[in-house]
Amino acid sequence: MSLKSLVLTTSLLAGALVQMSHAQDLKGDAQAGEKKIAMCIGCHGIPGYQASFPEVHKVPMISGQGAKYIFNALQAYKSGERKHPTMRSIAQGLSDQDAADVAAYYEMHGKTTPAPEQLAPPPAVVAELLNKGGCVGCHGANYSKPATPDFPKIAGQHRDYLFVALKSYKAEDAATWGRNNPVMGGIAKQFSLAELKLIANYLGTQPGELKIVPQSKFR
Amino acid sequence: MNIFSQHWKKIAHSCVAALSWFAFAAHAVNDLPGGPSVRQLGLHNPATKLAQEQADLHWFMMMICLGIFVVVFGVMFYSIWKHRKSVGHVPATFHESVKVEIAWTVVPFIIVIFMAIPATRTVIAQKDTANADLTIKATGYQWRWGYEYLKGEGQGISYISSLDNEHRLLSNNGAKGATPDDYLLKVDNPLVVPVGKKIRIITTSSDVIHAFAVPSFGIKQDAIPGFVRDTHFRAERVGDFYGQCQELCGKEHAYMPIHVKVLSEADYAAWVQKKKSGAPAAEDKKTAAAGTEQVAQAAVTVQK
Q1: Which CATH class is domain A28-204?
Q2: Is B146–A89 a contact, with Cβ atoms under 8 angstroms apart?
Q3: What residue spans define the domains of chain A?
Q4: ipTM
Q5: Which B residues 143-172 touch A at CB under 8 Å?
Q6: B178 is in which domain, residue-wise?
Q7: Where does residue A178 fall: left (phi above 0), alpha (psi -120 to 50 degrees), or beta otherwise?
Q8: Which of A129, A156, A199, B188 has its CA 20 to 30 A from that of B25?
Q9: CA atoms within 13 A on the CB side of A37
Q10: Overall average pLDDT of the B134-152 stretch
Q11: Rounded to two decimals, what is the model's pTM?
């Protein structure tokens, strides 16, 4: 194990530990969550819905995403670690319990067959990039089985969203957009934008567990 | 025959049901001071001088329209009736009349000017946002309002205001039974302002176009992403005033109300004190503490 990857792993573990200690006593209740998702549906439940700021991109699919990760993301928006004005306002309006409930709801939402264990091998260029980033280490061999529930499933996520997300890890000083995550920041900064796009395009075309489940038109 | 009578029975039943529903609905909801009233036809009860002027202008214009309507249609019907063919009138044969054409150009022009003079005064007063005592930025989010006190007493306060979730659930269930008077207007953190002070509201948005509007204050201003617009009001009495987002902004457009709480100066000062020393500051401290804790823990783990 190289020094770099050792540091990476320890910092990852440290981050995971802290987050766990914060959320230990929170247990998400999917049924309670169902009552708090009106605003989520407004974007994440509409197929093809695009966010307009800071960039135009499809809003991520969150149905089927891991509860722990959704919770972490909401907390990150709340604290300003992830900068996104609209998501920040949404997250600020949710108590920790609300966030846990919403997260639990979306983990179960539209859950069907798990993603295939093995994906078709990526083109050589992309394989090299994925290897360099060490993506498999956290997000899982099929990118739908993260090493700990703290990390997101990314296979099959919208390509343009993945690209914007990766790009925002490179921007830490902007006032209104960017993500300050020590781990993802370190990884994303190794790549050029063109390389990030290749990664995002590959991941976005793989079969995964994420989907958009629109609200029923009838009650 | 029997079939018909059955049909009539059904129709009568549904009419009774509809009537009783109306009666019930009328009983279930009351007027909301500072908000909508039951069977309201006119504008909201004004709470600022400008809103009063708008209401006056509204009636002034309405009366002029009514006057013109009566005169024009009166002349028309009189002419049609008095000069009808059956009593022997023959149509005039003249063509083009400079006198008439000048008259029907000049008279409306004078009427328009007559209406424009008071209206312009009010419109200019509406746009005059200078010398405000308090400046607040209202940011539209999908689907919440964010308020930031930029200048004046309370500078630095900022918070998010969103609809009470109980009301949202009530709406989801079809608003059955007795609905509260402030149905879909109740928020967790209302915008708090002092009475009698000029409040400048700067509007902007972080995603799509919203509009900040409080009918009782006579204000409505689009909140446009990437742009800054402003409006102002000076509330003349203490109380609660309500508005809603007035630019279609997505699925929850109907669920982002505006609640302005107008307090007396002393109460406002107390609110500012509480807000500055109370909850949000403590929260900041907590996150700061959590941050240091995180760093400390990380360091420990690396050392291990």
Answers
A1: mainly alpha
A2: yes
A3: 28-204
A4: 0.78
A5: 143-144, 146, 160, 162, 165, 168-169, 172
A6: 134-281
A7: left
A8: B188
A9: 25
A10: 93
A11: 0.78
